[in-house]
Structures are given as C-alpha cells and as structure tokens.
Design a protein that fits this description.
Layout: H1 2-30, E1 36-41, E2 51-55, H2 67-80, E3 84-87, H3 106-113, E4 120-122, H4 126-131, H5 133-142, E5 146-147, E6 151-156, E7 159-164, H6 174-178, E8 186-191, E9 206-209, E10 218-219, E11 223-224, E12 238-242, E13 245-249, E14 267-272
Parallel strand pairs: 1-14, 2-3, 3-4, 4-5, 7-8, 8-9, 9-13
Antiparallel strand pairs: 2-14, 6-7, 10-11, 12-13
Helix pairs in contact: 2-3, 3-5
C-alpha cells in the first residue's frame, strides 16, 4: 500500500513539475508574442454607431515589441477598418524592464502609427513622460495624429473626444477638456490611467483607458496578482459600468517591468458602439 502511494505521489510531483515548466514557457516565451483582436459590442446611450479601435501600452523597444511587431499591430488595426482609432499611451519602453530589441526612437514608432488609415487621436502615458513626452507628442503630431492633453476635439459632427492627462505623471483636468465642448454634445473621454474614472462627471458617456495591462498575469483561482491601480481590480480590464457611466480598459500590447503575460494576451480592442 505504501509503495503504491509513493508511486502516485511521484507521478503527481512529476505532473506538477511538467505543468510548472509549461506555464513558465507559456508566460515568458509564448503569450507575450501573441496578438489577439478583442471585439466587443457595448451600448452607451447618446453615442452614435461606431467601430472604435483601442491601442494602448505598446511599449515599443521592450522585449517582444520590435519594429516588426509594431508593424504587425498597425496592419491588424487597418484590417479591421475602424471608424476611429484611439491611442491610449505608453508608446515606448523607457528603459524599465527587459529588452530584446534595440531601443526604438519615437519618430520611428510615430511613423508606424501614422500608417493608421482611420482618423487617429492620442493621449500620453506615464512611460511617455518618463521618456520625453514633448518629443513623443511632437513625433505623433508630425504624422497626422491629434494629441490631446486636458483638451478636446470634435471627431465627428456632434461627437467630441476629451483627452485627459495621465494621472501618474501629469495633472488631469477633466474640467479643462469639457470646457471646450458645447453643452449637450456626446463625449468620449480618452486617458491613459483609468483611475481618473472614479471622479469623472456623468456628462462623459464613455471613458477608454489602458495602463493596467490587466495585471499581465491572471492565474486560475487566484486572479490578477498585481494591478497598478489605486482601486485594485476595480478598473483592471474590460467593460465597467458604474452609476450609468461606462469605462472600457484595454489590457494593451506590451509588457512592463517583467516581460511576462499569463492569461492576459496582448490585445487590440475593437469596440462596436
């Protein structure tokens, strides 16, 4: 009886070892290289029917995000034929975290983003400002991308985009952005860090954000181990509705600090309103 038990325990230990090896290979070598298109339809009162592409946390120049991967991301978005593209920050790796590819200058990344075929609007993230926010914004604008920082623009007749500054490195001012928008107009807010959503007024029908990477690791039963948010998992990923206000957080494409993803594949989001 004891010998049978020992044999089963050895088999169990071997199986657990294989599972751990597989999980490590998947997390550090396979999943970070993937790219999925996350399509989701949401109903938001007052907004027109639109297909909006969301791209965040590219972290170009970090491990797994070389120039070829950036081109693949842009080509994938163009193939979806969205009406608008909203870029939600952290375009470059600022040196934090492991690298596999050589550093990519902002101008190179902006040139790729400039190939997006739909009208494109952007905000900057914390990594952009840690790198050189002024230079990154100038590079994006040079390639026809509208960069918003506590400011607003009419993207379509009656539809306004309010770009709110990053909550970690800047001073978000929703009031400054909304002051530029006529009363009664439909408003979509874009920002990098979703933490600002808790204090946004009901006038903003939909807010879109990135930053969290969905925690990068989401384990069975244990969930997301670390979410870089003051609200824990409240705004970690996906579609959140609070008091009739809508937020969508994309888990992004790249990685930060550790080049790992598990249960949270790199994504481009296509929102069908």
């Amino acid at each position: 009886m004891k010998s049978v038990l020992r044999r089963w325990l050895r088999r169990l230990a071997f199986a657990l070892l294989l599972a751990a090896i597989f999980a490590a290979v998947w997390a550090f070598a396979v999943e970070p290289r993937r790219l999925v298109v996350h399509r989701e339809t949401i109903t938001v009162a007052g907004l027109p029917h639109l297909r909006i592409a969301l791209l965040s946390d590219l972290h170009a120049g970090a491990r797994f995000i070389d120039a070829a991967k950036v081109r693949r991301v842009i080509d994938t978005i163009n193939a979806e034929s969205p009406d608008l593209v909203l870029l939600l920050g952290d375009y470059l790796n600022n040196g934090r975290g492991a690298r596999m590819s050589p550093p990519l200058p902002p101008e190179t990344v902006a040139a790729e983003l400039g190939r997006l075929q739909a009208p494109t609007y952007a905000v900057l993230g914390n990594h952009d400002w840690w790198f050189d926010g002024t230079r990154i914004a100038a590079a994006l604008r040079a390639h026809g991308i509208t960069v918003l920082e506590n400011s607003a623009v009419e993207a379509r007749p009656g539809l306004w985009l309010a770009g709110i500054a990053d909550a970690m490195t800047r001073k978000p001012s929703p009031a400054a952005a909304l002051a530029q928008i006529p009363p009664g107009a439909a408003v979509v807010a874009l920002t990098h860090n979703p933490d600002v959503f808790a204090d946004l007024p009901a006038r903003i029908a939909l807010t879109v954000a990135g930053h969290t990477h969905g925690g990068q690791v989401r384990l069975p039963w244990l969930g997301r181990l670390v979410v870089p948010s003051d609200h824990g998992e409240r705004y970690a990923a996906g579609h959140i509705v609070e008091n009739g206000r809508h937020l969508f957080v994309t888990t992004g494409v790249g990685t930060s600090i550790y080049p790992v993803r598990f249960g949270v594949p790199p994504e481009i989001v296509i929102l069908q309103l």
